[in-house]
Amino acid sequence: xxxxxxxxxxxxxxxxxxKLNFLQKLVFDTNHISDKEKxxxxxxxxxxxxxxxxxxxxDETFLIIDVLKDYSTKEELQKIDQIxxxxxxx
Length: 90
Description:
Layout: H1 17-27, H2 35-51, H3 58-71, H4 74-89
């Protein structure tokens, strides 16, 4: 995703910016770091979310996924689907 237009989508106006920023980093910012750096990055991100007691409701989750898909490239859609499949397996 070249820009952050998805975060300004009117459908997301009731979701706190901290949650949207967290997702931006989780899904898209990991593209720019090496595989060796991903685990420490993800652990730090998870730790920050835990400290801030960040949780997503089911409604927020489904809405965010729909919005992300509207703004994603084909490759990004594949990555989103991979992430969703991991969570569905658990």
